[in-house]
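Q: For a teaching handout, I want to show students what a protein-ligand complex looks like in token form. Below are the inputs, and the small molecule is adenosine monophosphate. Please produce the holo structure.
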Amino acid sequence: MIVVLIGAPGAGKGTQADLLAARDGYRKLSTGDALRRQVKLGTEIGRKAGAIMERGELVPDDVLLGIVKAELESGSRDDVILLDGYPRNLAQAEALDGLRQIHAVKGALHLDVERTELIERLSGRLVCSQCGATYHKSGAAPKKAGVCDRCGGGVSQRADDRAESVAVRLDVFEKNTKPVLDYYKRTGVYRRISGQGSQEAIYTELRKVIKEG
Ligand code: AMP
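A: Here is the structure, written as tokens, with adenosine monophosphate included.
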């Protein structure tokens, strides 16, 4: 079964998906991470997607469907798959439902965070290019500037966390992804969860909602 994590950029989907995968054994697919890997490898998909991602716009739906379909077709039917960053528009939500024979969407969990808080989080976010650990310029910076505490990799700002791209990404969320929330309200799998509060408290709430089904 599929559990979709929906939230604006900076809402904490990735952090929570990582916690749920590590502690509860769920499988996770972050479409943003998958695309960034393609960019790094310089594949055809990566070459197409790189510039679009830097601007903060959406990569074409057919590219995403290919990535998601491959992931759903691998592994076991009994797996719980967390989708982080997909679907991001109505066409993607419908395409995902088209794959229900392989895995059906059992929950769409909306991590809700206010826009001012999102801007604060994103504009200060720093990421390790090697292991993906995240830091924040104020309060949670790495011990040594530019170096990951966990793996020693390089820590820097994501190109799409610069102010111009952040504004585009938040607008894309309002315009394209908000309708997906209504879609899941109609199909009856929608749940709102506040994304403001401690990481642990949010994790506990998400875990409970997923387990309750
Ligand atoms: P994320 O790491 O989830 O913030 O995604 C980073 C970027 O990857 C987004 O701003 C988009 O350019 C692209 N991306 C990720 N997921 C999708 C998706 N489902 N549809 C279109 N583009 C996506």
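A: Two things your students might notice: The pocket of adenosine monophosphate is lined by residues 9, 31-32, 35, 52-53, 56-59, 64, 85-86, 88, 92, 160, 169 (CB under 6 Å). The first helix runs from residue 13 to 24.
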